[in-house]
Amino acid sequence: MKTVYSPLHAGHAGTMELMSGAIVPGFEKPSRAEIVRSRVESEKLGPILAPELHDLSAAKRVHKADYIDFLPTVYPEWEALGRSGSAMPYTWPTRGLRGDVVPDTIDARLGYYSFDAGAPFVKGTWEAIKSSYDVVLTGAKLVKSGEPAAFALCRPPGHHAGAGFMGGYCYINNAAVAAQWFLDQGARRVAILDVDYHHGNGTQEIFYSRADVQVLNLHGDPMVEYPYFLGHADERGEGPGEGFNVNYPLPFGTSWEAWNAALDDACVKLSAYGPDVVVVSLGVDTFEKDPISQFKLKSSDYPKIGARIARLNLPTLFVMEGGYAVDEIGVNAVGVLTGFEGR
Ligand code: SP5
Ligand code: ZN
Predict the structure, then answer these.
(1) Strand partners of residue 155
(2) How many CA atoms lie within 13 A of 201 on its CB side?
(3) In 125-282, beta strands by DSSP E
(4) Is the preceding omega at residue 156 within 30 degrees of 0, hence cis?
(5) Are 301 and 162 in contact (CB under 8 A)?
(6) How far is the CA of 17 from the centre of ligand 2 (A)?
(7) Residue 269 backbone dihedrals phi, psi, to 5 degrees
(8) Could you say which of 51, 137, 197, 249 would form a disulfide bridge with 285 (CB–CB 3.0 to 4.6 Å)?
(9) Phi, psi at residue 185, to the nearest 5°?
(10) Structure confidence by residue, pLDDT tens digits, 201-218
(11) Tens digit of pLDDT for each residue in 100-123?
(12) In 10 A of CB 269, how many CB atoms?
């Protein structure tokens, strides 16, 4: 299958994050995408294409316009204050505080438009976000044009970004953008299958009251795992969307047998929904050696994921999400894709 990739991701580099009380180098780093790209080449998955450039109208179909307009302004405003390093929030409008007024100053706006401090901005961050968006739309167009599948090698990832918020390394929800784009191009129903270790809270929030996008999520139980405040099994969608959101919270230590049982259940529900196209939020942070995760999948399990997805027999767009065991991220991510292709 074809891969879409942009080198502009690499400007989003040198980020820091807060982990267990320490400021540490960001786990979501440029080498992730480079190692996946190099594995695509060495496995001869197929051609690697540059993205076509798009305006931001497709982003505004799933995100609030003021949020999308905010993103390119962050680092210029930060620099105008004489700041360097990473632009990050530190104050949020939680319950009991006013959330209906957008403040003026950048520190407050960062908090207004986020749910955590996990989406930092450096000088090249906006260009990377935009390139990731161009990558997913270019991949979607390949699938719309008749490719059985395509791989959008997105970086930064997207599934934690909601209609009006960033967080968890995510800014624009690439998978959600693609799903909406397919609908706008004439698809009747789209399914998003999110196999990243973390719950795709942004994707769930965007489509929660909609029947035209089914969202299925396999992830660490939010009672004990990030992003904590969404992703329970009783979240089934609301209003017209009732029944079209499906969560599989799984315990720490989950390995292939139990994870695969959840995947198979999700695939049965997906098939019953009868979508025209599948968007896979492809995180490989379910891997046993992932430095921030607690599942126990092995490298040999990833081709089996791809093979199960192939049995859906639907046009499929794979969208790169998480995965932080950098040494094996290429083997694992591309393993899903070669497994999908039956090799
Ligand atoms: C796209 C994606 O995979 N985003 C993940 C964001 C995770 N951010 C929070 C990480 C919290 C790590 N806690 C680790 C505890 C280890 N003792
Ligand atoms: Zn993740």
Answers:
(1) none
(2) 25
(3) 149-152, 190-194, 213-220, 245-250, 277-282
(4) yes
(5) no
(6) 15
(7) -65, -40
(8) 197
(9) -90, 5
(10) 999 999 999 999 999 999
(11) 999 999 999 999 999 999 999 999
(12) 16
